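EI: anyone free to look at a 351-residue chain?
SC: sure, send it
EI:
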Amino acid sequence: MLPVDLPGAVLGDGIDSPVPAHYGSPAREQRALMAGQALVDLSHLSLVTVTGPDRLSWVHNMTTQHILNLQPGVSTELILLTPEGRIQVPAAVIDDGETLYLITDVGMGEELYAFLQSMRFMLRVEVTLRDDVAFLGGIGTFDVPRAFITWRDPWPNVSPESVAYGEAPESHPAYGRERFIALLSKDELSDAVEEWEGSMAGMLAWEAQRIVDLRPRPALDPDEKALPHEWDWLRSAVHLNKGCYRGQEAIARTVNLGRPPRRAVLLQLDGSEERLPAMGSDILMGEKVVGKVTSRGRDMDEGPVALGVLKRNTPIDAQLTVDGIPALAEVIVNPDGRTDLSYERPKVRRV
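SC: here you go
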């Protein structure tokens, strides 16, 4: 039986409308998910595969991650940037020795496929936008029935060749989370669900946990102006010493000089309200717009929460409102916009 046909399944809305939002109890489902006892139907995600002997070097040269010698079964992620260094398409990445799998968020596969097709030239690669693969997400180290490969999320680890704009991995709320996405044939999804000995959880549970784990979602959180630095995305998706790629100069300049214009925050929302703010709601400090909500959900422990971006110089302790709901912002990205690799700015002597 497919996940959407299971008893109690209620479909989501927006970009998650093709899959179940919940099966009757999002909080209970989130607890099962956290305990490694539930799977989530993520079959609305997109997949682009690249085959051929030049696949690793080709994608390596165009994106933010060092995958030149990526070993089969090793999970990582990368970002295709605009020439100005802004986020265009992030992708989860794993290779099986013959095929490179690029898992992208809802509706982003077409954009990645079109770009890669336009850059093929005479290289020995074949690019395919796949529609025959299903995805099941979970938390834990177990194997999913009938999965032929599983991507394991590197977040919140920091690559030795990158840097964090937020907490060190050991202090990060997502430390040790073991989130994964298992790939299986769509033809086998029903059998896999029937063979699975646990329960199913919906997207509300998956998204709530993602938000409190401070994990940006490609199709929701970054806008057309977003820099990886603003979401602390360098830690897992950007290699700082791999050489030239599209957008590399902007990445290096912001790392060296510091101070990206905005910073991601976790918003703790007033729990006395029965509603969540609308997606894209302005974040207000008094009457002044200082940011926008990008994701929101209801966590089993923390209650109503949201991710958003603020102007970098917004005070840490600012009293905020979102869609009429009082909110406090918790720091994700260091408000001074600097890392251990940023240059010290010379002090200006005023006469």
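EI: Helices lie at 26-34, 55-62, 109-118, 189-195, 203-212, 234-237, 248-257.
SC: 👍
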